[in-house]
Amino acid sequence: MKDNDIQTNIPQAVKACLWSYDTDKIDLSNNDHRQRIIINVLNRGTMDAIEWLKNNFSKQEISESIQKTNVSEWSKKSLSLWSLVYDVYPLKMARFN
Q: DSSP letters along 53-85, please?
């Protein structure tokens, strides 16, 4: 999805996944912020948060974000589910690979 197409208002369901971040300072055009949103929503999100994610991020961007992470950033159950759904797995097995 193009940056200018994304909904700029982050819904409360997504903000709940980003509890340790100041969501007013998240820049949706920043790739690092986008990756953090994707991973946190997939790890902790409700159906509403996941639906928002799917409507605002492309399948390719979500897949690439999963691949760029470390296995340690995931809960085991979330990683099992989303690696099956998106047919990808994190390329980094440890934090300092």
A: HHHHS-HHHHHHHHHHSBGGGS-HHHHHHHHHH
Cβ proximity of 62 and 81 under 8 Å? no
Structure tokens at 42: 């997939």
pLDDT tens track, the chain, 97 positions: 444 444 468 899 999 999 888 888 888 888 999 999 999 999 999 999 999 999 999 999 999 999 999 999 999 999 999 999 999 999 877 655 5
b/e per residue 39-62 (b: at least 16 CB within 10 A): bbbbbebeeebbebbeebbeeebb
pTM: 0.83
